[in-house]
């Protein structure tokens, strides 16, 4: 029997919480380079590919053969700029979360399989290993309401730390560094601008002038996240 969320309901223009973790819960990111490579793949897939500009460079006699090889690789590479919108992400040592919208009913499968295969090849080559990197196929939860969408972004952005640990230690939530792991949270609080991450869809629900009604306040509240228990996964 398939495990929870392995059986997927693909719909056109659907919003999805995508996640997966390492085989046997092992780490899939071992250093900052690994995080950077995964993010670079996201960027390459989600930024529009200027094929005319690349073709012009390929025809330029002043461009080196090495650069032309890179251009050919880019031209052949999959691109999902017109098919996938990324709203939020978080990369943890042994798993990742993505919140995305697909324009066509079959896009997610092609997108996740493409980036998963490519990253596995990079990881296995770097660490001289063989075999699968992930614990089975990726999981996907179809988002069915605006409330679910908002709470999922909060869950994803709070993922780097454990609320239970925070409460047991008596530390206020703001003492913990949300930026400890790569995530899209800096984009949501105005610390960074990334063209291939869409924050507008979520931020329209929050105030830009009243700090108590801001997205930052929404994320950093001590409210129990178990209210969205049906949307999250057990990671340990």
Task: Explain this structure.
- The chain is 38% helix and 13% strand.
- It is of the alpha+beta class.
- Strands 2-3-1-4 form a 4-stranded antiparallel β-sheet, with helices on both faces.
- α1 (32-46) packs antiparallel against α4 and α2 runs antiparallel to α3 (65-76).
- The two termini are 21 Å apart.
- Residues 163-168, 170-176 and 231-236 have low confidence and may be disordered.
Question: What's the gist of this structure?
Answer:
Helix content is 38%, strand content 13%. It is built from nine helices and four strands.
Topology overview:
Layout (H helix, E strand, L loop, with lengths): L13 E8 L10 H15 L4 H9 L5 H12 L7 E9 L2 E8 L4 H21 L11 E5 L2 H13 L4 H7 L15 H4 L11 H4 L11 H5 L17
Antiparallel strand pairs: 1-3, 1-4, 2-3
Helix pairs in contact: 1-4, 2-3
Summary keywords:
globular; 9 helices; Alpha-Beta Plaits; four-stranded antiparallel beta sheet; 4 strands; alpha+beta; 13% strand; disordered C terminus; 236 residues
Topology-level CATH name: Alpha-Beta Plaits
> What is the H level of CATH, i.e. the homologous superfamily?
Transposase IS200-like
Quote the distance from N terminus to C terminus.
Answer: 21 Å
Q: What Rg do the Cα atoms give?
A: 19 Å
Strand order of the largest sheet: 2-3-1-4
- Going by helix content, strand content and strand pairing, the class is alpha+beta
- Provide a count of the helices: 9
CATH A-level architecture:
2-Layer Sandwich
**Overall geometry:** globular
Low-confidence stretches: 163-168, 170-176, 231-236
User: What portion of residues is helical?
Assistant: 25-40%
Portion of residues in beta strands equals 5-15%
The description of the largest β-sheet is: 4 strands, antiparallel
In the residues, how many domains can be counted?
Answer: 1
> How confident is the prediction overall: mean pLDDT?
83
Number of strands: 4
Under the CATH scheme, which class?
Alpha Beta
Order of helices and strands: EHHHEEHEHHHHH
């Amino acid at each position: 029997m398939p495990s929870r969320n392995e059986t997927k309901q693909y719909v056109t223009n659907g919003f999805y919480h995508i996640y997966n973790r390492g085989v046997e819960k092992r780490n899939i990111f071992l250093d900052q380079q690994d995080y950077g490579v995964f993010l670079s793949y996201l960027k390459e897939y989600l930024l529009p590919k200027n094929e005319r500009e690349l073709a012009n460079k390929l025809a330029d006699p002043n461009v080196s053969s090495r650069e032309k090889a890179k251009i050919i690789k880019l031209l052949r590479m999959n691109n999902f700029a017109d098919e996938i919108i990324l709203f939020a992400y978080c990369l943890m040592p042994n798993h990742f979360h993505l919140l995305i919208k697909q324009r066509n009913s079959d896009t997610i499968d092609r997108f996740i399989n493409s980036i998963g295969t490519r990253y596995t090849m990079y990881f296995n080559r770097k660490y001289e290993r063989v075999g699968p990197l992930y614990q089975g196929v990726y999981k996907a939860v179809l988002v069915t309401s605006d409330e679910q969408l908002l709470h999922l972004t909060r869950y994803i952005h709070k993922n780097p730390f454990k609320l239970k640990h925070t409460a047991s230690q008596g530390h206020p939530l703001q003492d913990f560094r949300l930026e400890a792991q790569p995530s899209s949270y800096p984009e949501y609080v105005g610390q960074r601008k990334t063209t291939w991450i869409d924050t507008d869809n979520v931020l329209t629900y929050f105030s830009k002038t009243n700090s108590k009604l801001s997205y930052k306040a929404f994320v950093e509240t001590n409210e129990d996240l178990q209210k969205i228990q049906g949307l999250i996964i057990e990671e340990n």
